[in-house]
Design goal:
Elements lengths: L4 E3 L3 E10 L5 E6 L2 E6 L7 H14 L6 E5 L5 E7 L3 H9 L5
Parallel strand pairs: 2-4
Antiparallel strand pairs: 1-2, 2-6, 3-4, 5-6
């Protein structure tokens, strides 16, 4: 099985399965080979993507401009680049259940 995150020259690349319209934004564990994240925003006019990027920026304490959705803008499965975030930071956060 492919890991849900990997290191690139720019930072860490995450494979996410995003569920919009949830009660709150939170990490839910694995969904196949992706990290499952519920987002408390509807999938309307980019609101869920904006909420996801904002949550990730807060989680990793980076500016929101450091978060880029590289693939999956309109789908649930997304590839998200965390610029300047080391892989060990990603592993630490998601092994603790997605808490900063």
């Amino acid at each position: 099985m492919t890991p849900p995150y990997r290191q690139t020259r720019e930072g860490s690349l995450l494979t996410l399965h995003v569920q919009p319209g949830a009660k709150k934004t939170e990490y839910m564990g694995l969904h196949g080979d992706a990290l499952k994240v519920r987002v408390a925003a509807p999938p309307v006019e980019g609101a869920a993507n904006e909420a996801l990027c904002s949550w990730l920026a807060g989680l990793f304490k980076v500016p929101q401009k450091a978060i880029t959705i590289q693939a999956g803008q309109t789908g649930r499965r997304k590839l998200v680049l965390l610029k300047g975030v080391a892989l060990d930071s990603v592993q630490n956060v998601f092994t603790r259940g997605g808490d900063a």
